[in-house]
Write a structure and sequence with these properties.
The chain is mostly helical. The chain has one domain (33-113). Helix content is 94%, strand content 0%. Helix 1 (2-27) packs antiparallel against helix 2 (33-114). The chain starts with a helix and ends with a helix.
């Protein structure tokens, strides 16, 4: 997540720097105040639109990555559950078989002792 936070911070810094540069450039340009304010407003709207677009792009990438990670995790968890269940079933059958053999051996020994 910190890589995404760094990317967002860098993007915000670049946009803020660009906005500051545009505003300073317009303020020092030899035009009427009304025209300068209009240009600043237009640039601000352009930057706002660019920021919205970048936010949408980053948001989609995060959603896609979350979806990929989520499905990978679910698949891995399912595989682990199947492996554990298969192991349990395998060993359960072996234990039942061994227990049955032991019971038969004990019964045979008891029968021999009774004779």
């Amino acid at each position: 997540m910190s890589k995404k936070n760094n990317t967002a911070g860098i993007l915000a810094g670049l946009l803020a720097g660009a906005a500051a540069g545009v505003v300073l450039g317009m303020l020092y340009a030899p035009e009427e105040g009304k025209e300068t304010r209009k240009k600043i407003k237009n640039k601000a709207n352009d930057l706002k639109d660019q920021a919205k677009n970048k936010y949408g792009e980053v948001s989609e990438k995060v959603k896609d990555q979350y979806s990929n990670i989520s499905s990978t995790f679910k698949e891995t968890a399912s595989n682990v559950a199947h492996t554990v269940k298969d192991g349990y079933d395998k060993y359960k059958d072996q234990i039942v078989s061994k227990t049955t053999d032991v019971v038969k051996d004990v019964e045979a020994e008891l029968n021999d002792l009774k004779k």
